[in-house]
Design a protein that fits this description.
The protein is mainly alpha-helical and about 140 residues long. The protein has helices spanning about 1-5, 50-55, 60-75, 80-85, 90-95, 105-120, 130-135; strands at about 15-20, 25-30, 35. Strand 2 (about 25-30) and strand 3 form a beta hairpin.
């Protein structure tokens, strides 16, 4: 029983409940999916799979969990301060980027740099259509 109280100290248990018929699994409170707690013995149980389930299937709940843990670790910071500390995922960052206006100085400088690279390195103009080049920009 001591192990159970130790496990319940993790904030992850706000989103999961132990399965009554199989203590090696926990049920997600959001979707009721049964998730393995890892290991085959009580001492080997962990919350890694539970965290991964939240991260993959309930992104908002996962973010809520991270915010709680950061706040707890850094003495109850405000939500704004927590948001500054949490690094956004790369896909979130890329979605938020807006292309430069064709008249902007940045757009003109990038266009000139690309043209200079093509000329200096004797690259075909089609290099700008390659997937790797597009990911670069």
């Amino acid at each position: 029983m001591a192990d159970l109280s130790r496990e319940k100290r993790s904030p992850i248990w706000k989103y999961f409940v132990l399965c009554e018929c199989d203590e090696s699994k926990a049920a997600c409170k959001v979707c009721n999916c049964k998730i393995s707690r890892g290991g085959s013995k009580r001492k080997a149980y962990n919350t890694t799979n539970l965290r991964k389930h939240l991260e993959q299937h309930h992104k908002e709940k996962h973010k809520e969990l991270l915010e709680f843990e950061v706040r707890k670790q850094f003495c109850k910071l405000s939500k704004e301060d927590v948001d500054k500390l949490l690094q956004p995922k790369i896909d979130e960052t890329l979605e938020s980027l807006n292309p430069y206006s064709t008249a902007s100085q940045r757009h003109i400088a990038i266009t000139r740099a690309v043209a200079r690279m093509i000329a200096t390195d004797f690259q075909p103009f089609s290099v700008v259509e390659d997937e790797g080049f597009r990911l670069l920009l």
